[in-house]
Design brief:
The complex is a heterodimer of chains A (156) and B (131). Chain A is α+β, with helices and mostly antiparallel strands and 156 residues long. Helix content of chain A is 32%, strand content 29%. Chain A has one domain: CheC-like (Chemotaxis protein chec, 3-Layer(aba) Sandwich). In chain A, strands 1, 2, 3, 4, 5, 6 and 7 form a 7-stranded antiparallel beta sheet that branches. In chain A, a hairpin with a 4-residue loop joins β2 and β3. In chain A, α1 crosses α3 and α2 packs across α3. The termini of chain A are close together. With 131 residues, chain B is of the alpha/beta class. Chain B is built from 5 helices and 5 strands, in the order βαβαβαβαβα. The longest helix of chain B is centred in the first third of the chain and has 14 residues. The chains are: A alpha+beta (156), B alpha/beta (131). At the A-B interface, α1, α2, α3 and β4 of A face α1 and α4 of B.
């Protein structure tokens, strides 16, 4: 399975997760050429590894302001009361839930494993990763989702 | 009757959300206990009285599957209901966890009502009706 085959799945799964647990509406989605560079205003990046019939890495990039609003919605707290670690935890959990939702659809009846979300930017391995980058517009601000599928995984 | 509930998840944010759902559900909670992985949960289970375990599967260290097996194989703990709360909603995983002895399975993302309903079912009560 190629990363590009996730194109329609990502917005569908993200809409469900954002609506159910972050009280956030997905307004639209589009494919991006690359993961945005970190902004001066502050941004967060979280990624985790998935292993199953298909293996690779799944990531989330968002601006600090968007992360703060999502965290407030998720925790049912005022934005001003949230600490940076709390905002990071919620962003990591969002990456985890989005990846789990996508992989549940892809793997169907098969078992898969997700690693603990790690903070930090994506580092492509020699530019050889099969990478899909999706931009999502939400009523809390933009999100960038990326998925990198490993090698030739043509399982029968 | 007040219930002691153990929430097991490596994400503090998710533990907080689950706890909030339990609080607003109307369940009479004696103590909330939390653990960040299966081993920490076992340590709590062997020193505290717990009426319900709500656990994630994917966690560093001892994961939810190992925790479930440990609980079911320990005569002192085996009767405690275990509710799985996981991002993994593949049919294979749900079947596997139920066959290993889980009493319920709620996938993330979840609606608060779905979690409350399972919790009440496992605690043997019904939600308080409000006006």
């Amino acid at each position: 399975m190629k990363a590009a085959e996730f194109t329609s799945l990502i917005p569908t799964c993200c809409a469900e997760v954002l609506d159910a647990m972050y009280f956030t509406t997905l307004l639209g989605s589009h494919t991006l050429a690359a993961i945005p560079k970190a902004s001066h205003g502050g941004s967060l990046s979280y990624s985790l590894r998935f292993e199953g019939h298909i293996s690779g890495r799944f990531g989330l990039y968002l601006e600090e302001g968007t992360a703060r609003t999502l965290a407030a919605n998720f925790l049912a707290e005022d934005e001003g009361t949230l600490s940076c670690p709390q905002i990071g935890e919620v962003a990591g959990e969002l990456a985890n839930m989005l990846c789990g939702s996508v992989m549940s659809q892809v793997e169907g009846d098969r078992k898969f494993i997700l690693s603990h979300p790690q903070a930090g930017p994506f580092a492509p391995s020699d530019g050889l990763d099969d990478l899909l980058v999706s931009g999502l517009d939400t009523d809390c601000g933009p999100l960038t989702i990326w998925i990198s599928v490993e090698g030739d995984q043509c399982h029968p | 009757m007040a219930f002691n509930i153990l929430i097991v998840d490596d994400s503090p944010a998710m533990r907080r959300v689950v706890r909030r759902v339990v609080e607003i559900s109307g369940v009479n909670v004696g103590n909330f206990l939390e653990a960040g992985d299966g081993q920490e949960a076992l340590d709590r289970l062997r020193t505290e009285w717990i009426d319900l375990i709500m656990t994630d599967i994917n966690m560093p260290g001892m994961d939810g599957e190992e925790l479930l097996l440990e609980v079911r194989n320990d005569p002192d703990l085996a009767a405690i209901p275990v509710l799985i709360v996981s991002t993994d909603r593949s049919e294979g995983r749900v079947r596997q966890m139920m066959s290993l002895g889980a009493d319920g399975y709620v996938s993330k993302p979840f609606m608060p009502a779905a979690l409350s309903q399972e919790m009440y079912r496992l605690l043997g009560g019904a939600p308080n009706e409000s006006c």
